[in-house]
Every structure is written in C-alpha cells, then in structure tokens.
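TEACHING EXERCISE
Course module: macromolecular assemblies
Task: Read the component lines below, then compare them to the predicted structure of the full complex.
Student: A.B.
Group: 4
Components provided:
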Amino acid sequence: MPRLNSYKSILLPACVLATFLATAGVLLFRSEADMLFRAQELSLFLPTRTFYHTLAIYPGGTLSFAACYFTQFFFHPWLGVLWLTLFWWLDAWLVTRLFRLRGAWSLLGLLVPLALLACLTQTGYWIYYQKLDGHLWVPTLGITCSLLSALVYRRLPERWWLRLAWMTVWGVVGYPLCGAYSFAGTALMMLPAEWERTKWQRHLLPLLWGAALILLVPQAAYYCYSQVEQAQLYRAAMPVFGIGTEDFAQYRLPYYALALALAVAAVGSFAAKRCSSWPRLSAVVPVLLVAVSCVGVKRIWYVDTNFHKEIRMHRAISQQDWERVLQIAREQSDVPPSRVIVMCRNLALFRLGRAGDEACHYLEGDTRGNAPWLVRVSQVCGRLLYYHYGMENFCYRWCMENGVEMGWNTEELCLMAKASILNDEPAVARKYLRLLAKTRYYKDWAAHYEAYLEHPELIRQDSEMEPITHLLPAANRLDTDNATAETYILDSFSTAESTDTLCQELTLFCALLVRDINLFWPRFFAYARLHEGQHIPRHYQEAAYLYGHLEDRVDISHMPFDPEVRQTYDEFMRFNEQCGPMSLEQRKVAFRPRFGGTFYYYYFLVRGLQTS
Amino acid sequence: MKRLLPLLLLCLTACHEARLPQDYVEDDVPPRIYPDYADVTVPPNIAPLHFVVEDAGQNATCSFQKTTCGVSDCDVQYVTKGHVASLSVKRWKKLCETPGDIRVDVYTQDEEGRWHHKRPFAIHVSPDTIDPYIAYRLIAPSYVTYEDLTICQRQLSSFRETVVYGNMINSREETGQCINCHAFQQENPRRMQFHVRQHMGGTLLTYDGQTEKVDLRTDSLISAGVYPAWHPTEPLIAYSTNRTFQTFHTRDVQKVEVQDELSDLILYDITRHKVTQLPHEDDWLDCFPTWSPDGRWLYYCSAHYERTDSALPRQADLIRHYDRVHYSLFRRTFDPSTQTFGPREVVYNAAAEGKSATLPRISPDGRFLMFTLGSFGVFHIWHTDADLRLMDLTSGDIRPLDELNSPQTESYHSWSSSGRWVVFSSRRDDGNFTRPFFAHIDAEGHASKPFELPSDDPLYHRQLLRSYNVPEFIGGPVRITPQQLARVIRGNATKAH
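Instructor-supplied answer key:
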C-alpha cells in the first residue's frame, strides 16, 4: 500500500508534469524554432574571463553569463528546447518539493514553467531590442536558482540561526549573482512552511530579516561595487521593456505571473491540507488553475506571420538559398508583406539575376511589425542588406552601433568579420574571427574565413562575396543614411553610375523602384549598351515604354519592345478608361488580377508605401 | 593519511618550480609573442609584462633573467611554463629593482616533443620611474550610439583598474548620459574635470576636495566647454567650444569623419565661475588648447576655412570639402595676473604643407612639443595616417616619431610628470580599437620602442571590445567615489557667466 501511495502522490504527478512539459516543448519547437535560432544569432557567449567580467560588473551578471551559455544551444533549436524543458521540469519538481504538493495539487508546479514559457513566447520583435544579455534564459535560470536556494533552506535542520545564516549567505551572494531573482529566493525562505503547526512568532524573525536583506543588500551593493542607478537596483537582471522614452509595461505581465505562480503554489500547499476532506475540490482547483494558465499562455504567445517570415528569409539569405527567400515571399499570408520582406525578396531577385523580370510579380506592402513601437528595417536586417549590397562601412557601422547599444552578438561579429575582409582590413577581421573561434557553434565558420586573411584570392572564389565585390563603392565620399537603410540603399544605387554589369543593373533596378524617370533613362541606356544584343528584362522594357509615353523626351518608336509589353500597356490604359472614377484601393483590387505583375501596376497603383 | 597523501603530492607538484628544457635546438628566429614586448624599455614601477607565445607547438617555457650585481650568485631567474608567460607582481618587482636588461629566453616544444630555443630578447629596465596611475575612458569605438561608458584609473605597478565614474550609475533606458574629456591639473588627482552630456549634463569639477557641477554654456558661446586644458598653476581651464557633426565614409576604412562647423576657445575661472572668450576671427576653427609648463603661453590648433560654395550651407560645404580642412599650430601669450591673451603666433604652419596638426602637448621641461599630424581634419583618432611628431621648441625642428609610429593611427598623447615617459593612443593592434602605449623619451627627445599597457591576461586587449580614450597620467588615485560623483551630478549645476 505505501508503495502505491508513493506512486500516486509522487511518481504519477512527476510523470504528468514531464508529459505536460514535453508537450509544451514540442509546441515551442514547432512554433518558434526559427525565432530561437535567430535569438542565438543575436546572442553571444564566450568562455573567457573578459566576457564574464563584462557581464558580472552588474548585479545579476553571472545569471546573464549562464543564460548566454544556454542560449547558444538554440543553434540546434531542438537541443535548446530540450534544455529548457528539462529546466522547466526541474522547476516544477522543485516547486512541488518546496511546497510539499502531492497528488493533484502537484499540478500547481506547472504554473511556474507556464509563466516561464509565456516570458519566452511573448518575445517577438524584442529579440532585436532587448538589452538584457541571455534574456530568453534568464528567467528560467533565475527561478531555478531561487527555488534551489529556498529548498536548501527548507532542508536545513530547524535551528533558527542556521536558517538565518543561509538566508544571509543567499541574500548577500545571490544578489550579485542573480540580481532581482535572489529576492524571489529570499521571499520563498520567508514564507512559513508549516502553517498549521507553527506559531506566527516563529516566522517573524525570518520575515523581518529577509525583508531587511531584500531592501539593504542592493543598497550595500550600490556603495560597494555596483555601477547601476539606484532605481534600477531592484530590477537587476530583469528585462528592459523600454525603447527610448517609451515603456511597454504590458510585457512585464508574464513576470508578474511568475511571481503569482509561486504565490499560488505556496497558498496551494496550505489549501491542499485544508481541502483534504473534499477530494473532488482538491482535484478540480489545480486542474482549473493550470487550464487558466494555459489559456493565458496561448493569449500571450506572440503571433505575427511577417515576423516569422522575416526570420526565415534572414536565415535563407545567410545560407545563400535565394530560391528559398522567394518561396517564402510567395507564401500566402493574411497580411501584406513588411518592408523587410520586400527588401529581402528584392535582394534575392537581384542575386538570382531575375529582378528585371520578376520584381513586380510579388505583393508590395509596408505592414508594420506587430509591436507597439516602430520596428525599423535597420534594426531587423539593415546590417545584412548593407553587407550584401557592398556598403561594408555602413554594415560595419550598424553592427558596431547595435553591439554597443544592445550587447554584442554572433551575427554582428560574423558580419563585421566579413565586412572587414571585403574592406581589406585583415587585422580587425582577425580580431572578430578570434572571438568567434571561441564560441561553440561558430568556430568552424571562423576557421573558414580565417583562411581568407592569408589568401584574399579566396574572396573571388566565394559565391557570396564575389558578387559583393562588384558593388563596393568605386570612390569614397562622406554620406549618412539617417538610420533608414531602404531609402539609403535605393538612393545610393539609383543615383550611382557603373560600368560593371552587375552593379550597373542594380543602379537600373533601383532607379526603377524609385520611379524616377530622370534617373531611369541614363541607366537604361547604359544597361542596353552593356547588354547589347541581349534580351532586355520585361520590367525595364515596361518602364521604358511607359516613360516614353508619359514624357516626350525620349523617342521610343525605334526601340524593339516585346509585343507583350506594348499589348499589356495598351490593355492597362484601356482598362483604366473603363474603370472610370475609383479610389486607389478599388483600382488595386480591380487591376491586380490582370496587371499585378507589371511595372505599370507598380508605377500607378503601388503608392504611399512607407519605410521605417 | 591515505586520503591526504594524494593531496600532498598534488600540492608538491603544483608548487614545483618550472624548469628549462635541457635538450633543445637553437632557432635563430625571434619568438612570436603578443603583446610585442621584445626590446622595449620599461619603467621600474610597471606591472609585469605578461605575454603569450604564439609560435605553434604543444608547449612553451620562458625564462626571465636579470643580472643585478654582475656575479652569477645574485642573478635573478624565473621560469614560466606554458604559452602564457606571466610572473607575479612580487617577482617582477625583483627583476625591475635595478636598471638594466631582463633577458627573456623563449623555448617552444614542437609536436614531436623537441624543444626549440628562440632568439632571446631583452626588456630594458630604465632608471626613470613613471607616474603611478593613468586615467582613461573606456568606450566602444561606435559612432552615434553609446551605452556603458566608464572613466577608469589604472595603477601602473599592478593590474588594478577601478572606476572613477561610470555613466550607468545615473543612466536608464530613457535617459542616456555621455561622459568625456577627463583632465587633471598637473597630474593631480584632486584637481579633475570631466563633462557629462545629455541627461544631467554639465561639467564636473573637483578642486582640492570641493566638487561641483558647472554649466559652462552662456548665450554668447557656440557650445559648452569641450576639449579642456588646465592651467599648470592657476585655477583656470581653457576649453574649446565646438559645434561638431559627423558623417560617414562610403569606402574609406576610416569610416567616420568628425568635423567642426564652428569652434572657438574660452577660458574658465574656477573660483569666479567666469567664462572669457578668447579673441577669435571668423572662418577660423580653433581647437585643442594646451598650456606651456610655465603657464605663460596657450598653444592650440586652428584651421582657416572659408565656404567654397556660398549656395551651400556651411556644414554641407564642409562635408563636400572635408579633406581641405587643415589645422596648424598657434600660440598666444597669457598674463595670469590680468587673464589676458596676446596676439596669435604661428608655431607650425602644417596647412602650408597640406597637412593638419592637432593635439599639441608640451613636455614638462618646455623643450618639446608633441602633436599629431594627419592629411586633413581634426579628429585624428579615426585617421589611419595620423602619426606623432615631435617639435624641438628651442630650434623649431620637427621630426616624425618613427620610434612610436605605426602604419595605423597614433593620436592622443600625454607626457608624464617627469617628462621621461609618454603615453599615447594607438590602433596598431587591429586598426579599430585604441590601446595605450608607453614609451621612454630621453632628454634629447629620442624615444624607445613603445610597449602596450600590460594586462594580467595578455589576451585581454584582443578580447576587449572597447577603446581606451584620452590616456592621462595621474600622480595617484582619484579618491572621490563614483557614488559621490553621481550625487553631485544629480544635483543642480552652477551657472557660469
């Protein structure tokens, strides 16, 4: 009988917790694998003293260091998720042990992992803006440390001085290591374990001492070593949900839920004993709480099709899988594309040499990111675009700016190394490659590019770098992009001149995109000269045919346009007359089926798009 | 006891002195070490020069040997094992007790287990001591953004680095704070100033125990004080005032160009909170003031710039012709009793040579003027061609300091109080991150091979993603704490008039 009881009260709940969390892990992996991979690209872990000290000068820095360590496992999202799930299972188990939850009440152990899951899945565009290093892992590790410290406290012999000594050690050491998460550990120690057996006087001392530690240790840290503003002392190692002067408090909700989950578990241990005479109630209440939490997680889970598309496109670009970029661009979506998607798609078309034929076949759009602040193209993919368009100084610059403001990450180090190689700056490229060589998953990548420093001729053999060399600016000038990557790229190339076939086509393509007739003609003629005897891509022909009709400056009568170009133009104009007075939106709907893939449609009906 | 035995053995092994290999092959090639400390001259009170042996191989051993009295019995020799050659501060001090050469022998073990003895090199210990501390700002070499900035002080005889003030102590997401331009009066750590920009902005001044925040802006100035120069004896600071902007090179590896649209010089009287504008002429950009050691001359650099295209705004014109802005060196007499300046005199007409001279600094004996020379412009820290020059003020002769210069940027520099050492900023390691280098300068102005600021972990500077900015010698540590400074910065500023 005791064996059966133990199975029912411990083993069965443990299995239920494990099954539940495994399901959560699978869900997380299936929905967010791309985001998790991107998160590790936007994080950095170096197993060096210097890196540790960089983080550890702030309270909670050690926690961040450990979090960065685990974040790198998202390189293989399944592995990162497996680690996370194990930690969540450990947290759930610790909660049940700490509060002595048995039977159905042990389900309350799930509330903490569910809150941690919500902390992670609400992230969305914060992966680009969050300044806390290792932010995806910090709550999980912080709570694990707190629960462990509290469990040690509970397991100590019941001598008041011994327990207070441990509380003090944790309070003093825990704060520099774990920041604000140490308060959770201290608070858990302050809670009475056996409500019914002990008198309130016995709780008073740990209660007062714990409160004093929570209040005073950060203040002591401020005067002894910390370089943090006083108001930030009690938020150390907590994520910053602010951009500029704006604060987005709604993102702190899962963190409040985390604290609430611990409180509910504590109350649960008390309620479990009180409700032992009502077994049905004992079964229903925890299940209900878990169900409500699941609904909460579902509601808070970040959803934005474009966000995920952007991430997948980014990865495809990094792998030079240009067809995959276009495939993602073609995927049906409930919202028009964002500017990031449009720019990545145009880059892919250009790299495949199909920009002049296909650019207008895709949906245009300027859908803003599903975030309460303006998500900037520069922040999401500006650095990558600058790199691929040969604007290596701007790529390097924005990597540096971002690294300084948001913390260094592997993507920036990779891009800075590659930009420096293309810029013929081997010494600084070597610096970044040496750092990357210390990482777990980028050491081979670093070794590959290290060879380029000794053998620059390898650049010409590199399928990614070789085309970029054609786009490097021929002459130097002073300029600024005003932090708008799209406008700057389009303006720079649409006004540039080149005799290199690849670069020249880009100047024509950009002149086409900006719809500037004056910029178009000289680039069109230059293109025709450079490609004499070759077929001119459809959109360039369409633009020439249209501009020839709109203005009389260029005689197009002798130009050998494709019959389809003329025919489509005539049909477009006829259809336009038939439509009569319509709003721009109505016209878009009416014209799209027949003319959606033409430059005419792009020129007349794709208007008012705003970059960011 | 059985349990203790392995522990004892472990301790004995750990305490065992490393030994030099007995059998080795002589390789007549210098060892590859980082940082490059071969044949450098060091002061006796410098921290140990730890380095990494970068020659391939499974192992390395280094010997540091010093003959202190000419008899082998009193030779000092320490041996290190492994690719990282590091000695304790105590042992290093023993080696540096007397002037002379420390002979360094590097042995490397190849993959087959054979030892190779590389060509030995010397570290020359000078009899001239160096000031005990330097102060610098640690800043990532970013362009517009900044986050975590610290003004630090480093004890040169050890690896101890402490924070004088870090901006994060008064910053949060919505209120960024930049700190810059720390400066001391005659290396005195009790007389210091630095600027705080944006949030809680002002100039922080500590003067013999009094600390205050000052607002140097007045209606007639183009900006608050920027580049400072403490008068050597009086409670006066000369500043440039600058309206600065920056743009970016599209191709040049220098990446950023920082230019002054307007700049003038002012004098600030600390005791009277009074700002006096120096005589200035339109179309002249005055910058980087510095005093002669007797305090009777104010040196500075100045560029003449007239708009070439009147249709363009001045800034746009400057952007277009950025490489036509050339600064030369000038000076004015100064009468401390009346606080008045004399007329301008040319010290070095760099513009006439199509060059640009900045950052003049005069040796404490008044004989030498060190400055930075580049092809154009004022912000030479970003100019790869920027090099140090030394002018003998007695003869007017100028020579490039080839002993100190590298193919990369050399820029900011500061004389030690004795005048026998200089610390200067160089980007020779990687072209992007500034590191402080030290060099000995003898009475005739000859410089020794410079050495990089020693680090406990010799790879520290390779991993550090920040630059050392404005290295300045100080005679001791700044005692006022960051928290005390933070409190003053949070308070109201005294308005200068």
